[in-house]
Every structure is written in structure tokens, then in C-alpha cells.
Amino acid sequence: MVKVGEEYQVRIEKINSQGQGIAYINSFVVFVDYALPGEVVKIKIHTAKKDYAVGRIVEFIEKDPRRCDPVCEVFYECGGCHLMHVNYEYQLELKKMMVEDAFKRIGKIEKEVNPVIGMENPYRYRNKAKIPVGKRRGKIVLGFYKPNTHYIVDINKCIVHHEDTDKVIETTKEAIKKFHIEVYNELQHTGLLRFVVVRRSFAFDDLMVILVSKGMIDNAKKVARFYKYKLKNLKSFYVNINPKRTNEIFGEESRLILGDETIRDKIGDFVFEISPVSFFQINSIQTEKLYNKALEYLSPNSRLVFDAYCGIGTISLFLSKKAEKVYGIEVERTAIEDAWKNARLNKVKNVEFIWGRSEEVIPRLIEDGKIPDAVVLDPPRKGCDQNLLESIIRAKIRQIIYISCYPSTLARDINILLNAGYNLVDVQPVDMFPQTFHVETIALLEKD
């Protein structure tokens, strides 16, 4: 029996989807934080459950030469990144392993996975930051939560966010002192300022700052002007009101204090308007590569295409370049409103957006005789709804382009489609989140 506090020497066999090494002690699985496949390490167990244990490295016996020193001084404390202790080329290899492992273990699929499409510069790529604000021993702290806690790791800069995020952190700390803004206390549900959210356009240099507060901040216009003085490219300043005792960041009301209602950014040739709560891909550079791959997969003679889980219509607009007609379906009403705005903004007329659940709308469209040549699936982490997959299978839709942020549910759903007679043509991972264990994957399936 593996016990907490005991030390063991183990060989790391592979890596899991959370970036932990996997070892075995008498066939009992042990996850080892920050360990790499092939390494031999001495570990100390800090968590022991019925089916598994978790340990940390106390000594290297055989160390992988591709290890490196993290460029972030709080990497091991913060938990926002997971692979910064590994050179970038090997990060991409590890992510390929994660996709292959999910396909073999969960999907029972033997398929060659393409090398991961990486970034030329795998830092400073995030166009959005959600930064909790707190106070510890009288000191204002802004940063990110330590894993599995609400302990805020105080930071002055973050190497994966745009440089303007660092300036916003500094400005916020100054503003709290200058305007005597009361910081929120999560345990007592007192105070005001809970989060600062930063949105930064990479294409147009525009900056949006949203202060999330329990109530309205006094002298909000003066506060906004102070931010504008410090941040010359600030285009939009909001206060979002969230009075609830909740883990959700945003409340229902966002008040524009200074500047424009939205900022704009681009993916490829398309311009998108971004409001405080709009969904927009975090990494604009890699998103363009991902969507171009979807466009490459799409058959050139596609008359009708369905874009399930379409969000604000980003993929739909890309597909409109090749398809005669695209229907985008999305359950979030505000996202559908944004999708229509984006279609008008880009003067795209061969798209139509429908509000509703994809698993309800698409079967209805099919029953009405609208049989698409292709369907694009980009579901949340939990994967596709079973009813939607069954509708696609029954309609014998010739082409499926499946985009997933979670290899496990992707492998599960592809297994269902393969058993229904589809062929898996191509699997292409894309590194949307360098320095983390997350990997986006796009797969093409076709029916003869």
C-alpha cells in the first residue's frame, strides 16, 4: 500500500492529460507532478487515494535533457502554466503524445496524428486575462489562484499574457491606493473590487479594462481617467457589477464608464467586435491556423454547412469563403447577437445564425429537408451531445470537421462515428495554449 510521506524510486512511463508523469508501484498508479516520460526519480507521496496516489520529485536519478529553467519565477507556485519546465519543441511532442494516448486508450483508435502546429513565439500570446484581486496581511495582491485553492499568487507580470496586462496590474494596484477602493473579501463577502479583466486586441492595439465589483465604485469616472492617463491605448473602460456570493466572475450588468462599447480584433481577413462578456478565442494567431485547417478540410463543392456550437460566428465566417450557405447554431443568445453583428460588419451574406441547442436545432433542420454536405462540431469540454451525433449519423452527412479542446471526449465521440461507418481521414493538433497542458485538435471524418 502506498502511504503519504513515504519515498519511492520510480520510472515515469508516460504523461497524462494534466501534464503529470505516470509511474507504477507494484501496478498501483502514481501521478508525479512535473515529471517527464523516461525519467527515473525519487518521489515523496503527498496524496493517497483508493485508486491512485500523487507524489512530488525529491531527487532525480535520470533526468530528461530537455528540461529547462522556467522563465517565470512563480511557475511552480501559480499553476496557470504546466509545462514551462520543458523546452518548447518537447512541449509539442508531449501534446502529440496526449492526443495519441487518448485516441488509443479511450477511442481504441490507431491513427497517425500529425505533429502539433506550434507558435514561432510561444509567449505573450493571450489576448484576455481574468485577474483576481485580494488583500493579504494588509498588502494588495493581484495574480492567479494557486491550483485547487483561492489563494492568490501575487504577480507583477505574466509571460503568457500581452505586455499591456502587466501595465494594467501595476495601474490597478496604484488605483486601489489612490482612490481608496475597498478590496473584496471572499470569506466575509465584504468590500468591492473582485477582479480586473483585461482584453487586448492584437490587430488594432486596442485595450479594454473591466473592473468587476460587488457594487458601483465611487468616483468611477475619475478612476477611468486615471487608467486612461496610465494606459494611452485604453479604448474602453467598464465596471461590471457582481453582488452575488459566487465563483462566477461576471455579474449581469456591465456599465461603460469611458470610451467605446467594444474593441475590435481580427482573425484572418475578418474583423470582430468584442464586448466585456463576448467569447473570443484567447490566441488569435493560432486560431487563424486552426480555422484555415477547417477551411482546408471543407470540400470545395459544399453547398450547405452547419456550424454547431458556433459562438460569435468566427468559424462560420471562415467557412463562408468556401460554402454556398452556412448555418451557425448557438445556445447563448448574446453570442448569436454578436454573430449577426460580425456578419454585418464583415459584409458576409451567405451565413445565417440560429439561437438554440445544436442537438435540438440540427435534427429539426434535417427533418425539414436541409441536409448539409458538412457539419463542423466545436463543442465544450464534455463533447458532443449523443442526440446530435445520432442525428448526423442518421442523415449520413458526408463530412464532419470536429474541433475539440479535450482529447478524451474527442476520442470517445470519434469512436462512435467510426462504429457508424465514418472514416477518420486526418487528425491535426494545434497548440493554442503554449506552456500549458491544453491542446486543441481538429479532425476530419468522411463517409463514403
UniProtKB/TrEMBL annotation:
S-adenosyl-L-methionine binds at Q281, Y309, E330, D378. Gene3D superfamilies: 2.40.50.1070, Nucleic acid-binding proteins, Vaccinia Virus protein VP39. Keywords: Methyltransferase, S-adenosyl-L-methionine, Transferase. It comes from the Bacteria. This is 23S rRNA (Uracil-5-)-methyltransferase RumA. It holds the Pfam family TRAM. The active site is at C405. GO terms for molecular function: rRNA (uridine-C5-)-methyltransferase activity. It is an enzyme of class 2 (transferase). Belongs to the class I-like SAM-binding methyltransferase superfamily. RNA M5U methyltransferase family. It comes from Dictyoglomus thermophilum (strain ATCC 35947 / DSM 3960 / H-6-12). Residues 1-59 form the TRAM domain. Its EC number is 2.1.1.-. GO terms for biological process: rRNA base methylation.
